[in-house]
Amino acid sequence: MKNLITTDKFFIAALSDTFEALPHQHPIMEIYAALDGIGHISVGGELLEGQTIAIGPETMHAISDIGKKGLVIFIDVLSTDAGFSLKDSILRDNPFAVINSVEIKEAVSVLRDDETEQAVHLAAESILRVLNTGSAVRPFSESVMNAICFISQEKELFDMQTLASRIHLSKSRLAHVFSEETGITLKSYLQFKRIESAFRQMVEGETITDAAYDAGFSSPSHIAASSRKLTGMQLKKLLNI
Question: What pLDDT, in 10s, does the model give residues 89-116?
Fold first, then answer.
């Protein structure tokens, strides 16, 4: 399997020759666009089919588009107003959305002939511009906004107890409020942000071992297991190693 990965402060995007992932869920939004115009994702036993498919946070899904080229974009919908606005524009309160758009079809068609990191980045940006039709502001309380801010700080890694102490709430109270307001569990969000931090380092050339330890994982096998749980794929396959 060949993956071409590009990262941005706002998103992570990957172009792949084939998409296959076991059932999984994660606290982010995933947008999948098939280059041939027809993509497939299974959600709750229902097979979705469309040119572009968006999967909401904490939605169990699986992908079985073996041998089909596609572009996938992962977006943290909590850390910025732009991410939250994108989720609001596409999903509203729904767990998924199937989108058929001429503009998106044109954006990804370029990748049939131009498989470069720059082309992938530009295609991802074009898709997000097309899909983001609103300007929603995150409607979270001060405690939840502070938690998201602390978690998003570069090089700052928190466990739930340390984070709760920073917010001046009990661990159980913070976990409850966070989940109630965002629809995402604090535990899964913290785990994702650690994996995201390590993944960005690995894309830039860091070894799995060093990136895992820097992101607070106890071992390479620990991050591999966490990554498989959140993506449905083996970490080495994601990174082409």
Answer: 999 889 999 999 999 999 999 998 898 9
